[in-house]
Amino acid sequence: MVVQQHRRRGTVFAAAAAAMGLVSGATGCSGSGAAADSQHPADPVDAMRQAADILVQQGTSKARTSMEMATGGTRVTIRGEGVYDYRARLGRLKVVLPQDPAGVDKHRPITELLAPGALYMKNRGAGVPADKWVRVDTTTLSDGNLVTGGATDPLAAAELLRGAQDVKYVGESEVAGTPVRHYRGTAVLERAAKRASAGHRAALKAAAKGFPKGEVPFDAYLDDQGRVRKVRHQFSFANNRGEGGKKSDVDVASTTLLYDFGAPVRVELPDAEDIFAGKIAEE
Description:
Elements lengths: L1 E2 L11 H5 L3 H5 L16 H6 L1 H8 L1 E12 L2 E12 L4 E7 L13 E6 L2 E5 L10 E5 L16 H7 L3 E12 L2 E11 H7 L2 H13 L4 E8 L5 E12 L8 E12 L20 E2 L2
Antiparallel strand pairs: 1-13, 2-3, 2-12, 3-4, 4-5, 5-6, 6-7, 8-9, 9-10, 10-11, 11-12
């Protein structure tokens, strides 16, 4: 498989696993929030739709991500950890790919820089020099980079909640020692795209067109200040790159944990001369 740097619109990849050449290989928090009060929130839908704005007000945080994919009897998990500046809409994650079936960790961690409309990756694939970055225009990805990069952009995960509907307050819970309120509902991609901030609107519009199912079930955990501490989205789509060329369903559970709000964050995007202009071959 050869993946071009600027990908065409079309059926989404076999999640991040296929985009990173993983499916075929696999087949062969702390916090400072005060205690949440016990009263039922007046409007859970409003709480979801305001979540992204509250993160922007907070400024920065650290983040952990987990993306679990299941297709054709194969299950892989990709984990990430890093920081995010919500006002600048810039983030940096180190994404760790799963071991092969024999337990050998042959994949180097991928450094990802998240920016409005773009994803930058280092150690992305075969044939890319070690000092070069791969840049992907996320507005051309049919999933809007919600799963392709192996981690959902933390702010994009909150922006998805702008399309929330049928939200129910589940009850009080705890995330990494912080009392939170647990909500469960469904995010409508098209609605989220219309309400999204300018930096994520185009990518979410692409996702709304690319996913065969326009609704994404979620569980969100907010602290007493309305800050997202944990959000889990359940994505599902058809994989046209299944084994033997057969179509198969892909289920992706993407979880984002946010903590240490106000942490210092500095993200510098690569210069044009540091970006790889060639093609990436499957390893």
